[in-house]
Specification:
Layout: H1 13-18, H2 23-40, E1 44-47, E2 51-60, E3 66-76, E4 81-85, H3 93-96, E5 103-104, E6 108-111, H4 119-134, E7 139-140
Antiparallel strand pairs: 1-2, 2-3, 2-7, 3-4, 4-6, 5-6
């Protein structure tokens, strides 16, 4: 089976964040980096050209597919901030109802700006996602 397309890189996280053109998106990325470092205890690593990841896990499915992926992280996209809460097994509805303005995908949370959400609730959500992931797969620092 082919490996995941998204792999860790040696790109500097600080340089990536500094190069974000939109000042609000850049400021939100700086704040999110500090928040993720505090919640996870992990140093960030770039995954692919635009995802900042914290920790990693190795998965192996019953189908035989296996690989490594970031445990949690975010991507400051042009349209919004994408926050990755892997791998999306748990229902975090009880936390999300207190978060603020957001949209969700299977394992991704989309927010327009950090001003739209309660940061304390976001921290709880990231921690809950990591705890859920750790019940399934061991999480390691990068």
């Amino acid at each position: 089976m082919p490996p995941n397309k998204t792999q860790p890189t040696t790109q500097s996280v600080a340089d990536f964040i500094a190069a974000i053109g939109h000042p609000v998106r850049r400021a939100d990325a700086v704040t999110l980096d500090g928040l993720f470092r505090r919640v996870t205890g992990f140093a960030p690593v770039m995954w692919g050209p635009s995802i900042i990841g914290y920790g990693r896990y190795h998965y192996r499915y019953a189908s035989g597919r296996e690989g490594d992926f970031l445990a949690t992280g975010f991507a400051p996209r042009k349209a919004n901030l994408s926050i990755y809460i892997m791998p999306g097994y748990a229902d975090f509805g009880a936390i999300l109802k207190h978060l603020g303005k957001h949209r969700i995908g299977k394992s991704c949370l989309y927010i327009n700006t950090l001003a739209d959400v309660d940061r304390g609730v976001l921290e709880r959500l990231i921690r809950a996602g990591l705890d859920d992931l750790a019940r399934r797969w061991p999480i390691e620092p990068e």
